[in-house]
Amino acid sequence: MFAIIAATVGDLSHKDNTMGQGWQPLAGESDADAILHGTPRFVMVRSAPLVRQALASFSFLLATVPTIGHLAEIPILYRPFPGEAGIHPLTLTALAALALALLLQRPFARAGIAERGLVALAAGSAVAQLGEVLLAAGTEPTAANVSSALGILALASALALRRRRPAWPAMILAGTAGMICLTAFLGFAMGIGRLQGALSPFTMLIMGPLVLAAQIGQARRPALRALFRDDQLTRVLRLELALAALVPMGLALVVFRFDPHGASSADAVYTQAMILFCCTSVLVAGRMRDRLDHERRMLARELERASFIDPLTGLANRRGIMMMANHAIHAARRSDRPVSLVLCDLDRFKAINDWLGHSVGDQVLQAAATLLAGRVRVSDIAGRWGGEEFLFILPDTPLAGAEALAELLRIALCEEVGIMPSGAVGTGAGGKPLTASLGCALIDVDRADGVERALEAADSALYVAKRNGRNQVASSPAPAATQPA
After folding, report:
1. Is pLDDT at 19 greater than 50 in this prediction?
2. What sign results for the dihedral spanned by CA atoms 169, 170, 171, 177?
3. Contact, 369 vs 390, CB < 8 A?
4. Which of 16, 160, 337, 437 is the residue whose CA sits 20 to 30 A from 371?
5. Do the domain assignments include residue 147?
6. How confident is the model at residue 139 (pLDDT cuts 50, 70, 90)?
7. Residues 269 and 415 in one domain
8. Is residue 278 part of a domain?
9. In degrees, to the nearest 5, what angle opens at C-alpha 314 toward C-alphas 367 and 424?
10. What's the CA gap between 449 and 451, in Å, rounded?
């Protein structure tokens, strides 16, 4: 329940509801990069530290009221309801220390000395308060003191474990402190009086925002990150959680508050159990939906990737080559750099399929693709153009550079890929070398149809190489300067 309240506070703290539509990598980047520099879907996670600091500041400022009451000996400032438990000085010290520790937290950073010292001070104050209760049992109403000390210990432990894996211990400890606050709230709202484990009014008001701040501090964790994303599915989940928490509470307040017999502690416990059950059910269902949605998005990305990749060779297919070529040409046009292409066709490939079978032909294509792709630069675009043809787009490369690369590719194929008499594809004595004919052309980046014209020129040059005996490189003359189409 306290996680959804934290998410709701985050909803009110940001105004960008744009869904991320870019293709973001699912692996290979750290959590900090994915969240701090990721898509707008994580805008609420990035705004969580500001909300956490605002809640901690509110609690710290509220703690000044009973502090003034204790120092000036004004009971109404630390005991607003006569006959009810007031806030203990040790409790006040511990809550102020926790508020300062939350203010000092930094996302993705280890706790500093000051933060660890404040958490230790809060835990020590809670332990001292428990010891005081044990030594002075029966002289003062102790239920509120015990419950406040336990809540502070749980909250301090959650802050001490905030960076530990797994995340659930810290979340459960903070939730335990939240349930103690909920118990006190139900006691006051339902008119039950001091429940077993109830808090003083000031303790409840100060500790509640600290619990929310501690949970918001875990927003980057995958377990809670699903509540803080900014997409339609997550907004529905937050609405369901809000209804699961508020509807049972509202019904209980209406039914039990106006019951002629009055509400009892059992009624408050029953209400808490219903709230926990409803929220847990919604969270489990939401987690399952989130996993299904994640799998759906993974599958969609894989399908999108497959539409640009040739399944046999692993290189870009025709669609992928043209998409990347357009990007390279736009960049070359801005920087006034040349772009060339090389069209490679394996010699007598049909004979390989006819005499040795298509399985050997597939092995030849795979071996050729691996070798050719390993000989080009990272910035070059390598792909299977169709059948036994491979196409290479070479940014920042003049025609002479394309001819030199084509010659290197021709020699590498001839020397390193051979077809053995047994039909195996590899290297070694007795194998027939694999040869290829290559055509080169310069792309006119100032024309809208520059790639198509260069492909036609490279194809013509390739057929010239075929007619001249194969296993050689030919090139088309550089295009004359033309006006942009």
Report:
1. no
2. positive
3. yes
4. 337
5. yes
6. very low
7. no
8. yes
9. 25
10. 6
The continuous run of DSSP H or E covering 14 comes out as none
**One domain, residues 299 and 323:** no
Total domains in the chain come to: 2
Name the pTM for this structure.
0.57
Q: How big is the chain, counted in residues?
A: 485
Query: 138 and 189 share a domain?
Result: yes
Residue 264 sits in the same domain as residue 403: no
Is the per-residue pLDDT at 113 higher than 60?
yes
> Residue 91 corresponds to which tokens in the numbers above?
């409790």
Report which DSSP code applies to 423.
Answer: S
Say yes or no: 237 and 333 in one domain.
no
Q: Are 453 and 479 in contact (CB under 8 A)?
A: yes
**Which of 208, 272, 177, 242 has its CA nearest to residue 7?**
242
Q: What is the sign, positive or negative, of the torsion defined by CA atoms of 414, 419, 425, 428?
A: negative
Indicate whether 378 and 435 sit together in one domain.
yes
| Domain span holding position 274 | 2-303
Per DSSP, which regions of 19-108 are E strands?
none
Cβ-Cβ contacts under 8 Å for 93 (sequence gap 6 or more): 121, 122, 125
In a domain, 88, yes or no: yes
The tens digit of pLDDT for each residue in 72-99 reads 888 778 777 666 667 888 888 999 999 9
β-bridge mates for residue 443, sequence order: 339
Per the CB < 8 A criterion, the answer to whether 391 and 385 are in contact is yes
DSSP H/E element including 472: none
**482 in a structural domain:** no
Q: List residues bridging with 394 in a β-sheet.
A: 340
Check whether 382 has a pLDDT greater than 60. Answer: yes
What sections of 346-449 are H helices per DSSP? 349-356, 358-375, 399-416
Q: What is the CATH number of the domain that holds 386?
A: 3.30.70.270
